[in-house]
Write a structure and sequence with these properties.
Radius of gyration: 21 Å
Oligomer: single chain
CATH class of the largest domain: Alpha Beta
Number of helices: 8
Distance between the termini: 43 Å
Largest sheet: 8 strands, mixed
Number of strands: 14
Order of helices and strands: EEEEEEHEHHEEEHHHHEEHEE
Bound molecules: ligand DP6
CATH topology of the largest domain: Ribosomal Protein S5, domain 2
């Protein structure tokens, strides 16, 4: 039997590199969003999850980020600041800078070359920003991957496995769920005794054979409320400190991981639905019972949920829903039900979406590099 090696924080510190190997150039990555089946909600510094989570990597909802880099002409002292500009969908976005500044501060010890370069970051999303779709997941993972491409130039000896694990590790420090947006198709984040090689520090591929029922699983995202999120994830996670039900919730999530591990291998769709819908409602229950409390669902969110339940009851379909920390509904179903489900969605559900907006997506294989030039 070969030994599984789980990396620790110190494994991610780059010590042996030569900045002269990359004077200027650019790199572009296309990175997907992801949808959690068992949710991450609650964390400790530095961005360590209170429970294990698992997600499907998506295919169509993605961010494309180009990182332009240029070696600074003078050697800066370690006190100097990071130098970068941010453009989003063609426009200069100074209001995105504080989040990236904080990200750079957090990761600087692991990528010490950050202060040696001037950067221009250019990003665009395939979905509306702040539509409630996890733009921080795809955005932060894209930036982490661009930085890893630069790291690989400075230190070409790193393996692909290390490249992905460190990209996930860095992305996590930008946004927790971003660490699940590097590879496909099912990613586990958070140490769990029943998931081999799982780690709190980075996401890993679900390490067991997945039943064919989950091949190319479909996710149609119903945009019930396209406004800016009512509660940011950061605020939401903080509500789990001193939450009266936090301990039980973390336990429930970890139990769901044990169960879904079996379900993903045996293809039991009934049990899959029970876990996934329970997770969505538990996440919202946490927000309804926190102090202060929030209701992030809208009346149309509930109408959609009831329609899905009625349809499932009437037709025996395996369609189900999940939610993120907002009002939008992710409608999940197996590929072989695509035709039937799409008809149902168009005829009965999109009337509850803002301007009938929805996005058809499915499980994807992870991020890929579009260009790298000098
Ligand atoms: C409800 O990853 O956005 O989508 O770590 O503060 O950036 P930060 O939070 P974030 O939280 C996502 C929470 C969730 C559930 C999930 O994706 O697991």
């Amino acid at each position: 039997m070969f030994k599984i090696y789980i990396l620790t924080e110190t494994d991610f510190i780059l010590s042996n590199f030569d900045v002269a190997k990359a004077s200027c150039g650019s790199v572009t990555w296309k990175t997907p969003s992801n949808i959690a089946l068992v949710k991450y909600w609650g964390k400790q510094e530095p961005q360590l999850p209170e429970n294990t989570s698992i997600s499907f990597t998506l295919n169509n909802c993605c961010t494309i980020t180009t990182l332009e880099y240029k070696l600074k002409s003078e050697v800066q002292n370690s006190e100097s600041e990071f130098n970068f500009e941010v453009f989003f969908e063609g426009k200069k976005k100074d209001d995105f800078k504080p989040k990236i500044q904080k990200f750079f501060q957090r990761i600087a010890q692991y990528v010490p070359f950050l202060k040696d370069f001037d950067f221009v970051i250019k990003s665009e999303n395939s979905f509306p920003h702040s539509s409630g779709i996890a733009s921080s997941a795809s955005g932060m993972s894209a930036l982490a991957l661009c930085l890893m491409s630069l790291e690989k130039k400075l230190n070409p000896t790193i393996t692909n496995k290390y490249f992905n694990e460190k990209a996930s590790f860095l992305a996590r420090l930008g946004s927790g769920s971003a660490c699940r947006s590097i590879e496909g198709e099912l990613i586990v984040w958070g140490k769990h005794p029943e998931i081999e090689a799982s780690s709190d520090l980075y996401g890993v591929k679900f390490p067991y054979k997945v039943h064919k029922n989950f091949n190319n699983y479909q996710d149609t995202i119903l945009l019930v409320d396209e406004g800016v999120k009512q509660v940011s994830s950061t605020v939401g996670h903080n509500l789990m400190y001193n939450h009266p039900f936090a301990k039980q919730r973390f336990k429930q999530a970890n139990n769901h991981i044990s169960k879904i591990k079996e379900v993903l291998q045996n293809g039991d769709l009934k049990e899959f639905i029970a876990i996934v819908e329970s997770e969505a409602l538990s996440l919202h229950a946490m927000m309804m019972t926190s102090s202060p409390y929030f209701i992030l669902m809208k009346p149309n969110t509930l109408k959609i949920i009831h329609k899905i339940w009625e349809f499932r009851e009437a037709t025996g379909s395996s369609i189900c829903f999940t939610l993120d920390a907002g009002a939008n509904v992710h409608v999940l179903f197996p590929e072989h039900e695509k035709e039937k489900a799409n008809k149902f969605i168009v005829n009965e559900l999109i009337q509850f979406c803002q301007e009938k907006h929805y996005i058809c997506d499915s499980v994807g294989k992870g991020a890929f590099q579009l260009t790298m030039d000098n």
